[in-house]
Amino acid sequence: MNIGIKIFYAAISVVVATVYGLTLGGIVRKMYARVHGRYGPPVWQLFLDIIKNHGKRVGISHGIMYYLGPVFRLAGGLGTYLFIPVIYGSVVFSNFSVAGDLLLVMYFIFFGQLGMALGAGEGGHPYSPIGIARGLAQMTTFEVPFSLAVIAVAIQYQTLNITTIVAAQQGSFLNWTLFTNPFAVIAAMISLLGMNMHSPFSIVLAPQEIPIGPPIEMNSSFLATLQTNRGLFTAAKLVLFMNLFFGGATNIFIMIAKTFLIYLSSVIVGASFPRFRPEQSMRFFLKWPTIIGIISIVFIAYF
């Protein structure tokens, strides 16, 4: 395929994923509000916030790296999404999936979060190091069971190509990794709770404890960039989990249904449990989900 057409299709895919991720975020905010007994903001509020923030200007300067943080964060979200095939067999939504793309996606997931940490470290706020330490520590711990689950999947299907992994799960829902290696799915889904940072793992911003962080310290188009990435990165993570563990999708309607249900699992947990303390969160990820991740490798290797 001509590279120009490939880039055009990828641009369409990114726009669709960003709109979907932001819409999903608006729906989730509405759901949380109803659980709390509130009416909540409209579903399209995130779109209005992005437009409003892009129209603002700021004269405050904290250094180049501080403002490169949102750029690195967005680059991590873009890189993660662009190497994931969204719809199996689709020309438009195949993105730039290549051999070994699973390994590349894992690196991009780290890239955005590490870039944001470097940016926040130059902000000068006394609480910034607290947020950085919490974020990186929790990221390290929830990546352990997630990496073990990915290793189990790679061993099971003998490939690091996401498209090949999805192809191996076609034919019947019994071919999904959910049924062929449930231990890997359990470990990965617990890790997803930390990735989404809903309660009980919302220890980075800790809204009930430290009312600061990038949503407050960042402003104007820098905050709009972070908000845009939130929608794109959310969609990228959900599509990745769908492909690895739930058989992928052959059309956009199946993709929306599966990713919504995957995301709903973390929303239900977040609405049901209070927030952990940092040490509780890290101890949790290094205990049960890590053990389950190890079992998933042993299970697929010997059974």
Please explain how this structure is put together.
- The chain starts with a helix and ends with a helix.
- It has helices at 3-35, 45-54, 64-82, 101-121, 128-157, 162-168, 177-180, 182-196, 214-217, 220-245, 252-272, 278-285, 288-302.
- The longest helix has 33 residues, at 3-35.
- The chain has one domain (3-302).
- The radius of gyration is 19 Å and the shape is globular.
- Helix 1 crosses helix 10, helix 8 (182-196) packs across helix 11 and helix 8 (182-196) runs antiparallel to helix 13.
- The chain has 303 residues and is an all-alpha fold.
- It contains 13 helices and no strands.
Assign an overall shape: globular
Helix content: over 70%
Low-confidence stretches: none
Rg: 19 Å
Query: Looking at the chains present, what oligomeric state does this protein adopt?
Result: single chain
Number of contiguous helices: 13
Average pLDDT value?
85
Short synopsis of the structure:
This protein is mainly alpha-helical and 303 residues long.
List the helices and strands and how they pair.
Elements: H1 3-35, H2 45-54, H3 64-82, H4 101-121, H5 128-157, H6 162-168, H7 177-180, H8 182-196, H9 214-217, H10 220-245, H11 252-272, H12 278-285, H13 288-302
Properties at a glance:
303 residues, mainly alpha, 13 helices, 70% helix
